[in-house]
Design goal:
88 residues; 3 helices
């Protein structure tokens, strides 16, 4: 099935790219941008994005790896007003 008419991407292409990415790096987070780059293409009009995402979600290899789940966000070193200039 054709998912993206602008870039001529099929559901088979999306699944193949996801499976290839997961096989090459089992810890990668798979995003639509990475799938487009793996296919050597870029999003054009964005009209396909709902179907593109639905196709991605139907692939079992898009799940976040267990070792990356429930990670706490890194604490920042910046203070709340660090980038603001003081009022005079």
């Amino acid at each position: 099935m054709i998912v993206c008419h602008c870039q001529h991407i099929t559901d088979h292409d999306i699944h193949a790219a996801i499976n290839w990415m997961r096989a090459s790096d089992d810890k990668t987070i798979i995003t639509p941008g990475k799938v487009y780059r793996a296919l050597g293409k870029a999003a054009d009009c964005g009209g396909c994005m709902p179907l593109f995402l639905s196709t991605m979600r139907s692939n079992d290899n898009t799940e976040v790896p267990m070792q990356l789940r429930n990670l706490k966000p890194a604490a920042t070193q910046e203070k709340e007003n660090e980038r603001r200039q003081e009022s005079y």
